[in-house]
Amino acid sequence: MSRISVRGFAVASATAVTTVGAVVGVAAGQPASVGNAEAAAADATIADIPAGAQAQVQTASLTQQADDQSTQADAAALKSAQEAARKAAAETAQSKKDAADEAKAKKDAEARKKKELAASRSDARDDLGDLVGKSSYSIADTQAIARQMVAGDQFQCFSNIVDHESGWNYQATNASSGAYGLVQALPGSKMASAGSDWQTNPATQIKWGLNYMNDRYGSPCGAWSFWQANNWY
């Protein structure tokens, strides 16, 4: 059986040390003093201690072990809490950084989109400059103008309506109703809201037609869906 340091037990329980020291001193034939008891007990084994005192020694040992384990557990818990707090702070900082990066990327993308759209509109105006201002327009001219003015994903729907309404003849007139132009506005003078040259300029008629389809049906494709169901729009 291993030796037990009574001096170590004194840290946990002064009472137990005093008792054990006294017992050891008596067993050695020396006066029972605390100092001598501690010195003698340093080299004593559990077998050297009378049975009645062993329980006190063991209790002191268990108490000291429990205290040590509690201290270690508290230190481990504190370390764990500190690590968890550090990790949470790092995750929060990373989340904020990711959100800021995402917001910046979105803002940059929107800025690029606006810039590209502005450039596209500028190019479209330049192209239209070469197409408008003529004394007359062929179907190819009129369709080229429309392609510059109508969004790519809406052009086919717009074209389908114009095909059925006027066959791309910007001077088409309905003798019975008086509807006029590419989109057969009724009356044709409605298109004056888009320009005073509504009778002779297909670009003005296209502009008015787009506004009408967007306002009433949401888009040219919305207008085309209605036209297919009703044969008018």
Description:
It contains 8 helices and no strands. Helix 2 packs antiparallel against helix 4 and helix 5 packs across helix 7. It has 233 residues and is mainly α. The chain is rod-shaped and about 130 Å long. About 10% of the residues have low confidence. It holds the Pfam family SLT. Keywords: Signal. It comes from Streptomyces sirii. This is Transglycosylase SLT domain-containing protein.
Helix content: 55-70%
Output mean pLDDT: 79
Note poorly predicted spans: 6-28
Query: Mind telling me the C-alpha Rg?
Result: 49 Å
Distance linking N and C termini: 105 Å
- The 3D shape can be described as rod-shaped
Number of strands: 0
Task: State the major sheet.
Answer: none
The run of helices and strands is HHHHHHHH
Fraction of residues in β-strands: under 5%
Structural class: mainly alpha
- Structure annotation, total helices: 8
